[in-house]
Amino acid sequence: MSGIVEIRDYTIEKEWFEQYKEWAEIAVPWLKEHLDVIDFWIDDGIEAELDGYDPQISIHGQPNVTWVIRYDDKADRDKKFNAVQEHPEWQEIWSQHPNENAYIVMNARFMKCL
């Protein structure tokens, strides 16, 4: 595999998590049609395992949503991701979001395969 992947981790407020999952049932299929989404995962309640010589959990807890998207490079990501956000169909889907302010943490990491 060449190129990069964007790993997006979200920590959604617990009181909005169930409604977010319902909204994601609409959002994820559309995103998979317009981006090279490898997959989309949500927390299922299994306790996280943390290890290492100084394990620290964020004060906000572990992310409860993760999705991975494949791109050619960062410029390709920026172009495609911005185009999706500006797409009228996505704006309609986004307008149905139960609470766009429920994201405690949004983290995007960019990685390449060895």
Detailed description of the structure:
This protein is of the alpha+beta class and 114 residues long. It has a single domain, classed as Alpha-Beta Plaits (2-Layer Sandwich), CATH 3.30.70. The chain is 37% helix and 28% strand. It contains three helices and four strands, in the order E-H-E-E-H-H-E. It has a four-stranded antiparallel beta sheet with strand order 2-3-1-4. The longest helix has 21 residues, at 14-34. 7% of the residues are buried.
Give a short overview.
The chain has a four-stranded antiparallel beta sheet with strand order 2-3-1-4. The radius of gyration is 15 Å and the shape is globular.
Write the layout of secondary structure elements.
Layout: E1 4-12, H1 14-34, E2 36-42, E3 65-71, H2 74-86, H3 88-95, E4 103-111
Antiparallel strand pairs: 1-3, 1-4, 2-3
